[in-house]
Design a protein that fits this description.
Length: about 110
């Protein structure tokens, strides 16, 4: 009660959410499920088989651990983001929306 009064008097607000939930439906529903061979070539500049090969080879090197804070970006999504950056002149903001991640995560 006393904490609430002090917070009210001095204008302090409660804790804010530090992680904004983003939709990854485009990645999961559109790209992984519905992209055909031509779509993979046009958008990522590699075939689906090459993409899977890259993911398999890079997984031991770039896979992150699941923590109590949040789930990491999957290896597949990280490779796809990298290929998208290399294949298109898109801005980080646009790529973040496409893949359902934060803009600061795109440039890491």
């Amino acid at each position: 009660m006393m904490h609430s009064m002090i917070s009210f008097m001095f204008g302090r607000r409660g804790r804010s959410v530090w992680m904004f939930m983003r939709s990854s439906t485009r990645w999961e529903d559109v790209v992984l499920s519905n992209f055909g061979p031509r779509d993979w070539r046009e958008n990522f500049r590699v075939s689906r088989e090459t993409f899977d090969y890259l993911c398999h080879k890079l997984k031991p090197l770039i896979e992150k651990q699941i923590t109590s804070m949040r789930r990491p970006v999957s290896v597949e999504r990280r490779v796809a983001i990298t290929l998208w950056i290399l294949a298109t002149p898109s801005e980080y903001r646009s790529i973040a929306h496409l893949f359902g991640i934060a803009r600061c995560t795109v440039c890491v």
